[in-house]
Design a protein that fits this description.
With about 240 residues, this protein is of the alpha+beta class. It has one domain (about 1-65, about 110-240): MetI-like (MetI-like fold, Orthogonal Bundle). Helices cover about 70% and strands about 10% of the residues. The chain has helices at about 1-25, 30-45, 50-60, 110-140, 140-150, 155-185, 195-205, 210-240, and strands at about 75, 80-85, 85-90, 95, 100-105, 105-110. The strands form 2 sheets. Strands 1-2-3-6 form a 4-stranded antiparallel β-sheet. Strands 4-5 form a two-stranded antiparallel ribbon. Strand 2 and strand 3 (about 85-90) form a beta hairpin. About 30% of the residues are buried. Its main location: membrane.
Length: about 240
């Protein structure tokens, strides 16, 4: 259960962040930015999620350097993020273990968890981007024109005037995507990450108590989904 909650929380945060950025980019006055955002959305929405998870796991994370002297770790964002085929580390320090350089300390993600979270977040962000785009189009164009007349740039008008109104509009469909991401985490079975469904499958195969195992999993997913729905309803009421 803890693993599934971890995937849901990190995945929802990343998907929302990327989705808002890409959704705003879809309506950018810059032609190239708009087309790149469109290509991102169409490529991700029109390929199966399980295939994307396999891509992130087998084609990306397992092909990363192993941390040896001939294949040193990848360091991103000024060394904040460390990537090897053993996983992803945020923060921490590089230390040598068994002839390989690896991150110690910080927040560690196994390659299975990293592939699952990134795959789910990227896939879901494409749908969120279209929701955000629709929300922006639902706001009167005159508001952006008024913002520009007051001397605000396009980005400032979007951030200060348009997006706060958009979030009130898009909470229901946004909630659906958050729920989909949480339920899609069950596809972790395909890449060997131990979340709810994987655990239930193991228990079922070892104890032959399939009814009990999968009933518990069903109720756990239901409870998690209801908690997410409840949290979004509270946010919606607070935003008015």
């Amino acid at each position: 259960m803890i693993n599934t909650i971890q995937v849901a929380v990190i995945g929802i945060a990343l998907a929302a962040l990327v989705g808002v950025v890409v959704g705003a980019a879809r309506l950018s006055p810059n032609w190239l930015v708009g087309r790149m955002a469109l290509g991102y959305v169409e490529a991700l929405r029109n390929t199966p999620l399980l295939v994307q998870l396999f891509f992130w796991y087998f084609a990306i994370f397992l092909q990363l350097p192993d941390g040896s002297s001939s294949h040193p770790p990848l360091r991103l964002l000024g060394g904040l993020v460390t990537l090897t085929n053993s996983g992803l580390a945020i923060g921490g320090a590089l230390v040598e273990r068994f002839g390989r350089m690896m991150a110690e300390g910080g927040y560690q993600l196994t390659p299975e968890l990293a592939a699952l979270v990134i795959g789910l977040a990227v896939y879901t962000s494409a749908f969120i981007a279209e929701i955000v785009r629709g929300g922006i189009l639902a706001v009167s164009r005159g508001q952006m024109e008024a913002a520009r007349s007051l001397g605000l740039t396009y980005r400032q008008g979007l951030r200060l005037i348009i997006l706060p109104q958009v979030f009130r509009i898009i909470i229901p469909p946004l909630g659906n995507q958050f729920l989909n991401l949480t339920k899609n985490s069950s596809l972790a079975l395909g890449i060997g990450y131990a979340e709810l469904l994987t655990t239930a499958n193991t228990v079922s195969s070892q104890s032959f108590r399939s009814l009990e195992a999968f009933t518990v999993v069903t109720l756990a997913y239901l409870a998690l989904s209801l908690m997410i729905s409840g949290a979004l309803n509270v946010i919606r009421l607070r935003l008015g």
